[in-house]
Amino acid sequence: MIRKWLAAALIACSFQAFSLQDTADLEASSSHYIRDDLFIFMHTGPGRNYRILGSIEAGTPITVLARDNDAEFTQITDNEGRDGWVESRFVSNTMSQAEQLPIISEKLAESQSALQTAQSENARLRQQLNDARQQVSKLTTTSEEQASEITRLTAKVDSANKDELVTWFTRGGMVAGVGILLGVMLTYLPKRKRRSSEWM
């Protein structure tokens, strides 16, 4: 029994040290408890000289019925329905560590589950972000390639236009040169004599 309560006391101390949960946030099953000592004796009256009814384990929820004039002893009803008197210094309105333990454990499990969910969601969002970045990189590369292709085609069209313009100028010059040459040649051709229409 002593080993059991020593283990419970160590667990309780560890929870206090880490301050996992404020007792004000917990729902208590009773307004008063036996303090987290090992155990205390319950007497038939408000004094140590009264007969001992039995012991009450630490952390037991109790109902306070009355207090003696000196407030050194408190009349209580324990969780087994026994009425008796215990020393007031062992009565506390703070939830016992034994009752806090399962509540804190449950809240800790809920917090761990929420943390795992958040971590999973964070990993999923990171993956989505990486995918989006890769997609943006691909689109940027494609856009740059298309811009380069447009520049190349524009330069090719401009070059073709220049070549076509040169061709037209060349052809026009050739036609003009041939015309001038024909004109010059025609001026040097001998003229035919006109036949006389008069009879000798």
From TrEMBL:
Record field: transmembrane: 168-189
| Pfam family, any one | SH3_3
Stretches assigned to coiled coil: 108-142
Check the UniProt entry and state the signal peptide residues, or none.
1-19
Report the domain of life of the source organism: Bacteria
Keyword field: Coiled coil, Membrane, Signal, Transmembrane, Transmembrane helix
Topological category with respect to the lipid bilayer: Single-pass membrane protein
InterPro entries on file: SH3-like_bac-type (IPR003646), SH3_dom_pro (IPR016476)
Q: Does the keyword Magnesium apply?
A: no
* Main location class: membrane
Q: Where in the cell is it found?
A: Membrane
Residue span, SH3b domain: 29-95
Q: Name one GO cellular component term.
A: membrane
Q: What is this protein called?
A: SH3b domain-containing protein
Source organism (scientific name): Alteromonas marina
